[in-house]
Design goal:
8 strands, 4-stranded mixed beta sheet, 2,3-Dihydroxybiphenyl 1,2-Dioxygenase, domain 1, globular, 136 residues
Length: 136
């Protein structure tokens, strides 16, 4: 048996950091459009609470644009969240789509960009019962 006392075991994400071009626009987007709860601001950083995860938005002297980080937000139903966000002007780079059929549910994803070009994913794990009710 392996000695696990000296191993690091990462089991929960506590914070995700995103580089943004315009902190004011980013704060408005995450607060007003995505509905996250603001925690505090410090210098060129702004912090939000999203469930058990803290999201940090920060500016850089060099414009980073999209740095490859993707946040996946769990939503009850991707297509409904997509329609609501699209209805208030959010542009999606990939419409809701079925990614995988699991034994007990289906995995759905959709992707959008924030004002700084960071990719955000919406993810839902939907039971097939809800699929049947929706006529899919």
């Amino acid at each position: 048996m392996e000695d696990t006392k000296n191993q690091v075991r990462l089991q929960e994400i506590a914070q995700v950091a995103l580089t943004v071009d315009d902190l004011i626009k980013a704060k408005e987007f995450y607060r007003d459009v995505l509905g996250m709860n603001p925690l505090f601001d410090t210098g060129t950083m702004s912090f939000f609470q999203c469930g058990n995860i803290r999201v940090m938005l920060g500016t850089s002297e060099q414009s980073a644009g999209s740095n490859g980080t993707i946040l996946y937000f769990r939503v009850p139903e991707v297509r409904q969240a997509h329609e609501i966000l699209k209805g208030i002007g959010v542009a999606f780079v990939q419409e809701p789509h079925l990614v995988a059929r699991m034994k007990s549910h289906d995995l759905w994803l959709a992707f959008l960009k924030d004002p700084s070009g960071n990719t955000l994913g919406l993810m839902s794990e939907e039971s097939r019962a809800s699929e049947t009710q929706q006529g899919i």
